[in-house]
From TrEMBL:
Cofactor requirements of the protein: Zn(2+)
This protein's UniProt keywords: Hydrolase, Metal-binding, Zinc
SUPFAM superfamilies the record matches: Metallo-dependent hydrolases (SSF51556)
Reaction equations catalysed: guanine + H2O + H(+) = xanthine + NH4(+)
UniProt name for this protein: Guanine deaminase
InterPro entries on file: Amidohydro-rel, Guanine_deaminase, Metal-dep_hydrolase_composite, Metal_Hydrolase, Metallo-dep_hydrolases
EC assignment: 3.5.4.3
Pfam families for this protein: Amidohydro_1 (PF01979)
Organism: Lampropedia puyangensis
Pathway: Purine metabolism; guanine degradation; xanthine from guanine: step 1/1
GO molecular function, one term: zinc ion binding
Family: Belongs to the metallo-dependent hydrolases superfamily. ATZ/TRZ family.
Any single GO BP term: guanine catabolic process
Amino acid sequence: MRFDSQGQPLFDSDGLLIVETALAHAASSTTKATSSRPGLIVAAGSYSALHRQYAEVPTTHWPRHIIAPGFIDLHVHYPQTDIIGAPADGLLPWLEQYTFPAETHFSSDSHAQEVAVFFLQELLRNGVTTALVFASSHPESVNALFTQAQQQHLRLITGKVLQDRNSPEGVRDDTEQSLLDTEQLIHRWHQHERLGYAITPRFAPTSSHQQLYGAGELALQYPDTWIQSHVAENLDELRWVKTLYPQARSYLDVYRQAGLLRPRAIYAHCIHLDDADRRLMHDTHTAAAVSPTSNLFLGSGFFDFAAAKHTGMPWALASDVGAGTSFCPLQTMLAAYYVGREGQTKEGLSLAPSTLWWHHTGAGAAALGLHNHIGNLQPGLEADFVVLDPHASPLLSRRSQQANTLQEQLFALIVLGDQRAIAHTHIAPRIALSNAL
């Protein structure tokens, strides 16, 4: 399964995906391969249309499976891996009781390395091939995650959290040093192989004016970096921001004033926005990382998909682990469907299964400015893909056998699937993890 330029699904029941490998490259004179280096997709389509042209290329067969683009997680916290499922009374108590205490441990390189290994394996087990990740406020946490991601040849973007106020000892950083650390980390890791750096204010309440505007200056100085933060997740948070930044028109406007809205800027949640905010995100090419399992878990509210469509606000899906309750994109898509259907506080709608899938793959790549590299299975893109097993459990298999359309099959995977349905995760140019077969 792949997508056209409008995000509509294309599916071949006898699909064939040709990936440039060392062997395929050697045979390119006879197969007319178009890619220039291993790890790129050469061709995708039906077996009947392509197999003669690539008859000499070794083929791996996955009968009764679906090959699809690797998932993109647009917002996830690796230092919160060990607090997933921790109960709390809402966002701010959850931060105080669980998040900040857990993140203090990431000043230890050995701890950060151990969690990074597990975290990346969990992403791969769930078919996530690219992620935009929060580290902690400690440079050690960033170095550990980048080191492990580089070994796995993953596309991964992360950054040191900036939080110089309203934070406890152990995670609170120094304003000047935090910006120096950020710049040093940019020089060390940004655009190194498949890695990228994200300038990362935790959220406006935990950054001073000096730190927030300093982050904006770095974003201007390094325009090909990413920006990530949170906005408008919780009503208590909105009221707090209003007391800290009374001159701003809205919570989102705080980031605009600091120079932190631009292409490659991603803001988690974006629940309690008005249409002026949503149009601002559209106009600045800033995207929302919609995190439905987290929002349901913390009772933060419901993302307004209809309003996002009406205003043209870019969005894609994210797990937001650890407030998010699963690394599995299938579970995230199911929660997004539930949130879309909610019609008491906003306009309810039904998101098509393929729309949900697109917003966890291609739309995420577009939000990151990486749509010419990842997020789809088209010639010239990097061969990050998953192999899905519609028969991974008895109930899923039974329902899949009754599916008459692609939309029905995708929805069966979303509703009934879990980690078992991810049979293989393939990272260009090698298979990173196999759950089955």
